[in-house]
UniProtKB/TrEMBL annotation:
Record-annotated AB hydrolase-1 domain positions: 37-228
Organism for this UniProt entry: Kribbella aluminosa
Active site: S139 (nucleophile), D299, H329
Molecular function GO terms recorded: homoserine O-acetyltransferase activity
Name of the gene: metXA
EC number per UniProt: 2.3.1.31
Identification of the protein by name: Homoserine O-acetyltransferase
Protein keywords: Acyltransferase, Amino-acid biosynthesis, Cytoplasm, Methionine biosynthesis, Transferase
Gene3D superfamilies, sorted: alpha/beta hydrolase
Lineage, uppermost ranks: Bacteria, Bacillati, Actinomycetota, Actinomycetes, Propionibacteriales
Length: 349
């Protein structure tokens, strides 16, 4: 069940303050007597706090990592997931009301991944959790899982980073650029102030999703699954075009374009060495938490080499765990058995 925490004003990395921050979250299980069994799950770009469970009122889709409890048993673990700062599923973001009663819209401040972690830390305080046994995340969630023990070294036992990177690369930023342009070029974008106008830049969001989804899957999967087949006798689209259209429509029906823009820009800021003394090895060398890193072997968005660079720079995190999957980047979500067994092997009750 979705819950809400009012965590107050949040000082952002760029010096401004975001007032009256609200965070939507869900929990499974309970804290034990020692309160040392809490696990934080960090979602990816278009995920939310609904990690586990069916669709229902206020929750149009099933849990995005449904089945995780086969590996993280709520009888043993207190599992927490929060909708990220800047999101659109109950946490303060561009679509939520500013103090003047109007949607934030274009006035919503630029965020960094570190701001999002700071918001999760505020939720951690509100829940009375001193230390996470583990912080687990993939993709954008992996960025936060990597930042958590750097920002709060005494509050994380183990960080599990899946299909992610120590810094957004030029290519990843380049892939983001046409997605952002698609949204802001939509005539219904209205400079980000479309809330309450009856017009939403859904076309731009759909194009952004089509571009992104290509990077989430592997060439092999697209070729073997769709090839050059047409959708049907009365549908001139190639089957792969229909597939992308389907995923665009799904996202349009559940996600806010303003949040997509805000979160994508935040991902582009990600670099764990930014503003910290030394190179990657020096930064990771200051970790107190145990670091576990996994890559998807067919990932063409967050390349296995980027995950390997973390282990090379910080040998204590080794070896690099490899998730074998034909599905590309989304393999960290699809190959739940491999990922679940990895998590189980790294976390002990």
């Amino acid at each position: 069940m979705k819950r809400f925490a009012e965590v107050g004003d949040l000082r952002l990395e760029r010096g401004t303050t975001l007032p009256g921050v609200r965070i939507a979250y869900e929990t499974w299980g309970r804290p034990n007597v020692a309160r040392d069994n809490a696990v934080l799950i960090c979602h990816a770009l278009t995920g939310d706090a609904h990690v586990i469970g069916p669709a229902g009122p206020g929750q149009p889709t099933p849990g995005w990592w449904d089945g995780l409890t086969r590996y993280l048993d709520p009888a043993d673990w207190y599992i927490v997931a929060a909708n990220v700062l800047g999101g659109c599923q109950g946490t303060t973001g561009p679509s939520t009301e500013a103090p003047d009663g109007r949607a934030w819209g274009s006035r919503f401040p630029a965020l960094t991944v570190r701001d999002q972690v700071a918001a999760e830390a505020a939720l951690t305080d509100a829940l009375g959790i001193d230390r996470w046994a583990a912080v687990i995340g993939g993709s954008m969630g992996g960025m936060r899982a990597l930042e958590w023990p750097l920002m709060y070294p005494d509050r994380v036992g183990t960080a599990v980073v899946l299909a992610s990177t120590p810094a957004a690369s030029a290519e990843q930023i380049a892939w983001s650029a046409p997605q952002l342009a698609a949204i802001t070029s939509d005539p219904d974008w209205q400079n980000g102030d479309y809330y309450g106008t009856g017009r939403t830049p859904a076309t731009g969001l759909g194009i952004a999703r089509r571009i992104a989804h290509i990077t989430y899957r592997s060439e092999y999967e697209l070729a073997s699954r769709f090839g050059r087949t047409r959708q049907g006798p009365d549908d001139p689209r190639f089957a792969v075009e229909s597939y992308l259209d389907h995923h665009a429509t799904k996202l349009i029906n559940r996600f806010d374009p303003g949040s997509y823009l805000t979160l994508t820009k935040a991902m582009n800021t990600h670099d764990i060495t930014r503003g910290r003394a030394g190179d990657l090895a020096a930064v990771l060398g200051r970790l107190k938490a145990r670091l576990v890193v996994a890559a998807v072997d067919s990932d063409r968005l967050y390349l296995p080499a980027q995950s390997r660079s973390v282990v090379v720079a910080h040998p204590a995190a080794g070896p690099l765990h490899v998730i074998s999957s034909p599905y590309g980047h989304d393999g960290f979500l699809i190959e739940l058995d491999q990922v679940g067994k990895l998590i189980t092997s790294q976390l002990r009750v």
